[in-house]
Structure formats: structure tokens, C-alpha cells
Amino acid sequence: MKISIAFPNTIPGASGRLQWQWAVRAEERGFSTVAATHRLRYPGHEPLPVLAAAAAVTSRIGLSTNILVAPLTTAEVLAKEAATLASLAEGRFVLGLGPGVRSDDFTAADRAYGGRARVFEEQLAELARLRGKDGDTGLPGPVPPVLVGGLSEHAVRRAARWADGWTAPGVEPALVAPTVRRVHEEWAAAGREGRPRLVALSRFWLGEDVAEEAAGFVRDYFGVLGDEAESFVAKTPRSPERIREQIAELADAGFDEVVFHPTAAHLSQVDRLADAVLS
């Protein structure tokens, strides 16, 4: 099981300096990948520029979007930006994509929320077509590997048909484990060779000194869900023991990697997570 960590790029108030420092520390501590997530109508830094900065200050650690809301842009722009980042990172970049679930992001981007599923599938098909064709498309290099996010049957079929694997949303392992089997079944039904790459997501915080800040962020980020937001706070792993249990549960379910998303924008979170699971 590969252990990765996400940037605090959607945590309000986290500085740009902290983003690249985070990448450097994550590489030093031995994480497999450092990932950036995406919200347009929420305070924070855009994922692709954050990852470009990380590419400049690291040399070994993988870089990924987990996830980028693809229908907020066009397939052509997405392909160009992804290939550019893959070139800057010298092949270390993986493009995790999803159709998006927040209508305010689409309003801000002047994109249709209702048609996002169709647009997303067209984008995935185009990205698949462009793979290996950079020489005659104007791209600076190949389109990087693609992962598809989501928990629906549509997400499973998209991953099996057009992507290199699947990335699960940040809910309890018991809720995402059944989808692993479905991804493998759809992969085989689509006649794909090899096996899909399977990535899980988990939020976390470590230390009583960040507990209030972290809980406040989770509560605010999921505030659109009303009272259900409090359950996300309660279920966020916050002890080394629970984090290690979560890793074991996800490994047993068949995941290849778990990306831990911080809920507090303090560099100490990188070290505390590394001490808990990598030492």
C-alpha cells in the first residue's frame, strides 16, 4: 500500500509558500505522492499551479490531482495543461478527474452544471484519443495517466473504459470497498489488460493543538450538507492508531494507495503523519 498526502491547497488562509514547503517536506519524509484537490468557489489555491510549483522544488515524489473538476474547462485546455505539467514534472504527474458535485463552481466558471456528465465523458474520450499523439497535436508531451473519481456506476464504467484506474471519495472504507470489485469486473468486461490502479482518499488531523481548526474546516467545507457535516467531523481519523487501522482496511479492500488529505494547514501535519505511518 502506497501512502500519499495532499496539499492544504483548499484550506482557507494556507499560504502559497506553505504549498511548496509541503511538497518538499512530503518528499523528504518518503510519501509516495503529493496531491492537490479542486474547488473554484471556495478559498484556496488552484491545483495545477500548486503542482507546477511542487514540480520545481522536488525530484522524486509523484504529483497528482485528487481530483480536478474536468467540466469546468474544455478537453483541449485540460489536455494542454496536463501535458505541460507532466513535462515539467518529468513524468511524475497523474491526472485524477471527476465531473464535479458543486453547482456554484459551475456557475462561477459559466459552465452548465446539468450537462456535466455528458461533457465529462466526452472529455475522457478525447483525452484517451490524445494519449500517445503529442507529436501532432501541439502538446508539449504525452497526456499523463488518468484516474476517474466517484462512487456511482457511471464512475466505475468511465474508469474501466477510458482511464488507468479509479480514485474513491473520502468516506469510510466500508462504503468504498464494494466498488473495488465492481471496478475489476467492469475492467475485465471492457477487455482491458492488466489491472486498474485503485486510489482511496481519507481526511485526517493529528494533534490536539490543531483539533479546533481542523474540525472547523471540515464543518465549513461540508456545510452545504447541513447537519450531515458534523458526521464528517466525527469520522475524520485523528489518532495514529485510527489512521493505521484505516490503511489496513483499505489495503484489505484492494486499494493500491491512500491519499491523506489534511484538515489543518500546518507543516507539522506532514511530519506527524509520516511518524504515524512511515516510520
Please outline what is shown here.
With 279 residues, the chain is α/β, with parallel strands linked by helices. Helix content is 47%, strand content 16%.
Order of helices and strands: EHEHEHEHHEHEHEHHHEH
The average pLDDT value, as a whole number, equals 96
Given helix and strand content, the structural type is: alpha/beta
- List low-confidence stretches: none
Largest sheet: 8 strands, parallel, barrel
* Percent in strands: 15-25%
Assign an overall shape.
Answer: globular
Structure write-up:
It contains eleven helices and eight strands. With 279 residues, the protein is α/β, with parallel strands linked by helices. Strands 1-2-3-4-5-6-7-8 form an eight-stranded parallel beta barrel, surrounded by seven helices. The longest helix is centred in the middle third of the chain and has 17 residues, at 173-189. The two termini are 14 Å apart.
Secondary structure elements and pairings:
Layout: E1 2-6, H1 16-29, E2 33-36, H2 47-57, E3 62-69, H3 75-88, E4 93-98, H4 103-109, H5 116-130, E5 146-149, H6 153-162, E6 165-167, H7 173-189, E7 197-204, H8 211-221, H9 229-235, H10 240-253, E8 257-262, H11 268-277
Parallel strand pairs: 1-2, 1-8, 2-3, 3-4, 4-5, 5-6, 6-7, 7-8
Helix pairs in contact: 1-2, 2-3, 6-7, 7-10, 8-9
Which keywords apply here?
single chain; 279 residues; alpha/beta; 11 helices
